[in-house]
Amino acid sequence: MMAADHRGMGLEGKNVVVLGVADESSLAWAIAKRFAEHGAHVFIGYQQKFFSRVRLLLLHNPGVQGDRCDILNDQELTSFFARFENNPIEVLVHAIAFAPNELFTEPASACSAEAFCQSLTVSAHSLCKTVRFAKPNLKEWGSVITLTYQASERAEASYGLMGVSKSALESAVRYLALELGPKKVRVNALSPGPIETVAATGIMGAFLRNPEALERQRARAFQEAIGMARAENHPDPLAVASAAWKHFQELAAKRCAIEETVSKEDVADSALFLGSDYSRKITGQIIHIDCGLSTANAL
After folding, report:
1. In what order do the strands lie in the sheet with 15-19?
2. Residues 147-199: pLDDT tens digits?
3. 204: domain range?
4. Which residue of the set 46, 149, 175, 278 is catalytic?
5. Rounded to whole angstroms, how far apart are CA atoms 145 and 160?
6. In the annotation, is 159 catalytic?
7. Are residues 245 and 169 in the same domain?
8. Is the dihedral of CA 72, 74, 75, 80 positive or negative?
9. Cα(177)–Cα(171) distance, rounded to whole angstroms?
10. Fewest beta carbons within 10 Å, which of 87, 109, 171, 200?
11. Measured between alpha carbons, how far is residue 234 from residues 124, 165, 196, 222, 230 in Å?
12. The domain spanning residue 93 has which CATH number?
């Protein structure tokens, strides 16, 4: 797909921080790369366990810098954001989420408190915590951006209680917008349609390994997508999961006002808008990039 032309958006020279880069397939990396292409100074944060993958991205993209930043580690957060004391952040992208498999594959009433709290901590509260450490170094008229999903607004069978974490994240966006408003810093969330990432394929893989969960969770769209993938005789479970996710995207597209799938580049382009001065009066909002899927019935 041809990339949109965003010349003249005023992103050249802006300091952009992107947290949550795991590998080349991540939405965080697509966003970081897009900002770099438009002349921004991009600094990424990643967990040490992903360093071998992220190192290759940094080697092949010399215009992007990075360092460790585990949002559960206060020392790493302090060290990471200290470098911006005299070089304020103009765009901060939070692309961090996690949930144990049971939140997707088990009934809501059966999920453990430990798994639920872990998901809320990493997927929702981490935005608040990130802002706490970044706040002294956020520039006036800056932009904070996070990523959510439509299962925050409606029950989606294949997303389980992770949808509650996304609901909490979206509520946090509104309260942080109130907090940062006097500083003239805006806070918004992007809500993409289904996109294949390592995390997304992992969710599909969890259902592949636990087929009874498909029926128990009434995850009809996943069930159909997995059936289509299995009929194609792929060589290994990972290939089946990837093919099933592509079929799931195609099924979702048929429910959309615009019958197209959404790409990482589509999301990155929307992040460019929220990072530019063209969005300076938009805050506390959830912006859907889903071809209209969120206006249809849940999958």
Report:
1. 64-68, 41-46, 15-19, 89-94, 138-147, 186-192, 286-289
2. 999 999 998 889 999 999 999 999 999 999 999 999 999 999 999 999 988 88
3. 195-260
4. 149
5. 24
6. yes
7. no
8. positive
9. 10
10. 109
11. 36, 33, 17, 17, 7
12. 3.40.50.720
Per-residue pLDDT tens over the stretch 248-287? 999 999 999 999 999 999 999 999 999 999 999 999 999 9
Residue in the block written with tokens 């965003």: 6
Task: Match 């349609």 to its residue by tokens.
Answer: 193
Q: Which of 46, 153, 49, 151 is nearest to 103 (CA)?
A: 151
Q: Please give the single-letter amino acid code of residue 130.
A: T
pLDDT (0 to 100) of residue 4 = 44
SS3 14: coil
- Which residue bears the tokens 């292409």? 37
* Residue 278 annotated in active site: no
Residue found under tokens 């304020």: 88
Q: For a pLDDT cut of 70, what percent of the chain falls above it?
A: 96
The dihedral region occupied by 184, where left means phi > 0, alpha psi between -120 and 50, and beta the remainder, is: left
